[in-house]
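Journal club prep — side note

Before the paper discussion, L.F. wants everyone to see what a predicted structure for a comparable chain looks like in token form. Sequence:
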Amino acid sequence: MSKQINVALIGNPNTGKTSVFNALTGLNQKVGNYPGITVDKKQGVCKLARGFKAHIIDLPGTYSLNASSIDENVVIELLLNKNDKDFPDIAVVVTDVENLKRNLLIFTQIKDLEIPTLLVINMADRMSKKGISLDIDVLEKELNTKIALVSTRKNQGIDNLKELITSYKSIPAKPCLNTTDIDISYFENLQKAFPSQLLYKLWLVITQDVNFGKTSRQEIDAVAPDSYRDFKTKSNTDLKRLQQKETIKRYQFINNVLKKGQTIDLSQATDLRIKLDRILTHKVWGYIIFFIVLFLMFQAVYDWATYPTDLIDESFASLSDWVKNTLPPGAFTNLLSDGIIAGIGGIMVFIPPISFLFLFIALLEESGYMSRVVFLMDRVMRRFGLSGKSVVPLISGNACAVPAVMAARNIENWKERLITILVTPFTTCSARLPVYVIIIALVIPEGSFLGMSYKALTLMGLYIIGFVAAIASAYILNKILKIKSKSYFVIEMPSYKVPLFKNVALTVIEKTKTFILEAGKIILAISIVLWVLASYGPGDDFKNAESIVKTENPSISETELEDKIASYKLENSYIGIIGKTIEPVIKPLGYDWKIGIGLVTSFAAREVFVGTLATIYSVGSAGEKEDEDTIKNKMAAEVYPDGSKVFTLATGISLLLFYAFAMQCMSTLAIVKRETNSWKWPIIQLFSMTTIAYVVALIAFQFLK
């Protein structure tokens, strides 16, 4: 029977901690939330030698154990609570070979907690380029630990790292320096008051307000009983001064260690990073390059995704036809072909563009360029009452608004954080992409401008509209909300790197899988409900649909008759009645009752809109021609009773703008409520965004029709 050990992966942001995590766990990883808080919890399993198995937790990036955010509190809570099931048998601190001095601060702090602590020096392949040489034996002796020199890019040192983790009991747990001499009498009194407790644990508990989420009273007492936290013989100001002295003492120790164990030949170091930064963060060229990158990204999303998207679309259409022709006729066959397969097919066709979007975002993050974008946009953010830190949630919102809203936790200033939370849903998330792609394909003509297709330009325009709406709303909220505040923006510029294929691939696979599973569950459930509502109806009109249609159309062909019967049944079904009820409200926007049903159901999740229409049009049609059996073609062929097309340019633009501004997402509302601890803000958010969406869509349709 294999023995499992807990491994906590800790480190500063941008040290390659995720790369080490991926190298150890591969695809054996999952993402969840820490109990009681919505902070990402990445964990995975790594098989080791001698029958060992490591349960690895990738903790949020932090610069020290002096926490200033909820993310950093997560690290402290785990390291202080020995009763936690995930309490580490060994802590693995990941550092960057170019920033050892800063990275080693948290290493020395964890050592003071007397946890076996292994030091990983990552990006070893860059040492020669940067003129860095290390004496590992000296560093191990001075830091009282074992060191793994690794390069995840070249897959070097990973086996040695696994062996050191397996031999965790041989790694010293004693501190590498004594910091109590910053105030000898204070620490002596503290130790006398709690003689059985670890001194540095007491110091951490006293000097900061650790948030214990929804942990029980017993669990809190196990980490930091009131008797610990209430032991304050010094004022908060004096405690802060002692913290500063402690930090200085640690850096003095780190400097002395690096003088002995590290040599840097600056003549060998390259200045390419400085030259690139001058261009990419330039007040003119920086913005031009950023927009060129966006142009190329959206062009590629459309061009590259076209072929796999068409293949998936046709495959699901063929599967639906095969089910109809193979299985016995009846309700179950119709449910399977017109409800489940059509609904799931309505979302599966968008896996290629969404995957490509995740791919490009991962490449920008891995290369180090995304940090330059954040720095660049800080200049814009300041004018609208935000800081550069707000750009992180706004950019994250291009993937999903839920984690983007949670990312605002890094903003210490409450006013800036609140404004960021309220405006982030304007940014174009991946759930909007299915709606955008299908509508653009239907109503935007072929052609190009300056080498870029009209469709790609339209998609990019929608992303820009979302960002501009977020910025404009932030400006208005900054004027309306009378909250006095002042904050400073600090961001680290990581080194430029060629993106690591494994990291990019794992990111794309993980995020796409999450999108499919989360959206798939909702779509499957809604598709079944919609099919039932669309396949049954009250009253004689639904029951006698066939005789009524035959009476009104005595001389039409069999195929046309079947289509008219199916359409008549749908119109008088339960879903048809719902759609007809809301049609007067949405008709001025250019929408019929079928589109209205899509708007209502997509409140569960925006991407459900396309699946809804796919289900409705599958139920409401019969005997399609072979060239009209895909989702896109069914929507393109939809007409009003007078023969005019439903999806015209005016209707399409109106729909695109409605989804660009509307909230249309229950999950986002729920997370806003949780982050603001009030229903006030999500309700204001819902009504204001819906009103803006309605007015803009109304103006667009009336102007273009």
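L.F.'s comment for the group: Residues 285-326 form the longest helix (42 residues). Keep this in mind when we get to the figures.
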